[in-house]
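Usage

Read records sequentially. Each one opens with the input sequence:
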Amino acid sequence: MILGMSLRPRALALLELRDPATKAEKTRALMAAVQSGQVALDRQAELATPPGLPGRPSLPRLVAATEVPRRSPFTPQGRAALIHSICHIEFNAINLALDAVWRFAGMPEGYYLDWLKIAAEEALHFTLLREHLLTLGQDYGDFDGHDGLWQMAESTAGDIVARMALVPRTLEARGLDATPPIQDKLGRAGDARAVEILDIILRDEIGHVAIGNHWYRWLCSRDGHDAEALYPQLVARHSAPRLRPPFNLAARRAAGFSESELDTLKP
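and closes with the structure output:
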């Protein structure tokens, strides 16, 4: 990255990086540089979309979600595959957060700082999971993955309201629901370190979903939308995945979902 480059072009340059470990390290470094006042923020700059986004390694091989095999966490290989799948989600989450920083001009300063914070925390999650995966004799890229998260980023690239509705409030919120059952399985499989890492991830993801809720509602207020009425329309327009139980209602409540929104999840 060029010295003197402002925040959003730097975020785009990071998004273009192909090596996951380098991307994670430099994302966390950018957050530290911003916190120390070394990076300017140009909120209004209109940046051109370069080809080939996001930058990512040649592996893992990307297949349809239905083609990613499910493996038992009670075998060493199955446990490694499960950790790899979460690691893959966190790598994609770095890309999604960096994309939210560079792509959308004209938002308040707090928006960009919030999404850079998310990117840095996703980078930490990826790093912790990859380090643990290495102790299991595997590395990121050793198993297949799918591209559903980035496909939603592409679908919402021209609509920041949809992006806030469907990435943090839908895709990331699904992680709030999925994490406790995964922790239970990994605990029964004897992987205490994985459970500890997922504790960190769950804590941080509540904050990420809360950020998504905040900016989605801010945008709806700005644009004169009823946030709760608009949400199902955006889900249908962008073919977002259906939410399936069990739901982590406590985590969703902590992340800022309203009681009326939580009521729609109840049978």
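Summary fields computed downstream for this record:
- The CA atoms of residues 80 and 136 lie 6 Å apart.
- Residues 192-223 form the longest helix (32 residues).
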